[in-house]
């Protein structure tokens, strides 16, 4: 009962379940022909198990033809599984024994069916099983495929049991006539089906891992591409700003600058108080225009480039008043590179220094003016800069509130307030010391310049004049 009823029924149920799974896999992946052939072989085995006996002659013929048919389907599975190319004519030829047995059941009596099966059935089954073993062995040996080695090992068990059944039919073995080939064949098919299902699960896991890696790579590529686009947009923006800055500088220099030079020349040709006033006003406007043009240059945080132009301008101003200029750079490179330095910062710094030089020229009576530039390291790992303007003049008393001075010196302290205001806008520290040996104006620049102030602050600072 256990050997011929219970175990075959359990194996048929397993075989049907695994065959259904393989069939669904093949329907979802039509290019995986191996799953379709093995599912068809399992379906034939399940149908064979549930056909009652004795039965109709046609069904009896199907029972005889089912085993070579199942073997032919497994042979096709082995060929597709190992990637062996089989011609269509040879592929259909392996089904010929099953067709002959079915034809015999349709036209002959049971004895003809039995004789036909005995002539074709065992021989064809043996040939197909041997061919399957050869295909799997070739794939395992020459392609080193572990799955082919596993399938070949299970097929060896089938061969052993089929030899046992053949010897039993020939009465070559003593004892009861027990046939185990059918049971071993079902077990092997189930094992192969489970192995293929696990192979699909493993492939799906690998596909998920690959999809995860691909998703991460795509995400990283998107981040890099986004950063590249941001850099490209920033570069395009800077190029557009530089082009517009260049155009504006050229228009100011060639247009307004040329007109101011013409006004100065006409004022010098005329004589009289009004011409002198007009000439001085034009020279001041021209000086301020040159300051704006210099500040608009792209300096990438290097304030020394602007200080070089400023040195040339104050040298001419000091020579006109017979004041000697000493330019001292105490550290290599002078000032560090200032991140965040913008043109409006440069304008405030240069106008503050202009105010210091102008005060020295007008009020100190100095014979010498010294400009000292250096890099300082008040905070570790952060460098800032200091610009000092010193003169050897008479100095003044910082405690006297000069803004509300006498009518003879109206609002003479306005320039100092403007200087402090400009330093505050830039986030810089301004210190002023004065005595009998002269005046020292020291401007300590921040290591990082702040953000752009409001428009009112910029306009207020730009409109201040001493």
Describe this structure in words.
The structure is a single chain. This protein has 466 residues and is of the alpha+beta class. The chain has helices at 2-28, 33-49, 57-81, 88-93, 96-107, 110-142, 146-169, 181-269, 273-295, 304-320, 343-364, 414-426, 455-463, and strands at 324-329, 368-379, 382-391, 429-435, 438-445. The protein folds into two domains: 2-219; 301-466, Heat Shock Protein 90, CATH 3.30.565. The protein is rod-shaped. It starts with a helix and ends with a helix.
**Low-pLDDT ranges:** 401-412, 454-466
Overall mean pLDDT: 77
Helix fraction bin: 55-70%
SS field, number of helical segments: 13
**Helix-strand topology string:** HHHHHHHHHHEHEEHEEH
- Rough outline: rod-shaped
Kindly estimate the percentage of residues that lie in beta strands according to DSSP: 5-15%
Overall structural domain count? 2
**Main beta sheet:** 5 strands, mixed
Structural class, by secondary structure, is: alpha+beta
User: In angstroms, what is the radius of gyration?
Assistant: 51 Å
The total strand number stands at: 5
Distance between the termini: 119 Å
Give the strand order, joined by hyphens, for the main sheet.
1-2-3-5-4
Give a brief outline of the structure.
By secondary structure, the chain is an alpha+beta fold. The protein has helices spanning 2-28, 33-49, 57-81, 88-93, 96-107, 110-142, 146-169, 181-269, 273-295, 304-320, 343-364, 414-426, 455-463; strands at 324-329, 368-379, 382-391, 429-435, 438-445.
Task: List the keywords.
single chain; 466 residues; alpha+beta; Heat Shock Protein 90; 2 domains; 5-stranded mixed sheet; 13 helices; rod-shaped; disordered C terminus
């Amino acid at each position: 009962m256990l050997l011929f009823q219970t175990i075959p029924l359990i194996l048929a149920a397993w075989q049907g379940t695994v065959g259904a799974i393989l069939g669904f896999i093949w329907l979802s992946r039509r290019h995986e022909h191996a799953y379709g052939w093995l599912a068809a072989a399992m379906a034939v085995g399940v149908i064979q198990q549930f056909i009652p006996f004795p039965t109709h002659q046609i069904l009896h013929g199907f029972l005889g033809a089912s085993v070579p048919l199942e073997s032919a389907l497994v042979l096709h599975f082995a060929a597709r599984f190992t990637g062996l190319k089989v011609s269509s004519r040879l592929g259909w030829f392996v089904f010929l024994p099953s067709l002959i047995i079915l034809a015999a059941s349709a036209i002959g009596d049971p004895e003809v069916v039995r004789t036909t099966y005995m002539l074709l059935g065992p021989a064809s089954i043996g040939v197909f099983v041997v061919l399957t073993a050869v295909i799997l062995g070739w794939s395992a040996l020459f392609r080193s495929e572990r799955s082919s080695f596993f399938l070949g090992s299970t097929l060896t068990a089938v061969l052993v049991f089929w030899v046992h059944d053949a010897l039993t039919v020939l009465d070559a073995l003593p004892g009861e006539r027990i046939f185990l080939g059918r049971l071993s064949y079902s077990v092997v098919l189930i094992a192969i089906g489970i192995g293929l299902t696990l192979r699909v699960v493993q492939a799906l896991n690998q596909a998920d891992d690959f999809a995860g890696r691909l998703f991460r790579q795509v995400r990283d590529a998107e981040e890099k591409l986004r950063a590249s686009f941001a850099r490209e947009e920033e570069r395009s923006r800077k190029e557009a700003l530089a082009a517009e800055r260049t155009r504006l500088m050229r228009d100011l220099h060639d247009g307004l600058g040329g007109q101011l030079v013409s006004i100065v020349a006409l004022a010098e040709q005329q004589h009289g108080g009004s011409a002198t006033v007009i000439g001085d006003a034009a020279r001041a406007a021209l000086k301020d225009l040159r300051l704006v043009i210099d500040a608009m240059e792209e300096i990438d945080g290097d304030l020394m480039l602007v200080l070089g132009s400023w040195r040339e301008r104050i040298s001419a101003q000091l020579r006109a008043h017979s004041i000697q200029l000493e330019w001292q750079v105490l550290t290599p490179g002078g000032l560090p590179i200032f991140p965040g330095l913008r043109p409006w910062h440069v304008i405030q710094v240069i106008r503050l220094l202009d105010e210091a030089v102008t005060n020295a020229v007008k009020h100190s009576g100095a014979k010498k003016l010294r400009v000292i530039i250096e890099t300082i390291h008040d905070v570790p790992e952060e460098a800032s800069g200091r610009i000092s303007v010193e003169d050897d003049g008479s100095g003044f008393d910082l405690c006297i509130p000069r803004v509300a001075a006498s009518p003879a010196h109206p609002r003479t302290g306005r320039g100092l307030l403007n200087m402090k205001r400009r330093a505050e806008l830039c986030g810089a520290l301004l210190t002023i010391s004065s005595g009998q040996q002269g005046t020292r104006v020291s401007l300590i620049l921040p290591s990082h310049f702040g953000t752009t102030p409001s428009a009112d602050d910029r306009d207020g600072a730009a409109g201040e004049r001493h």
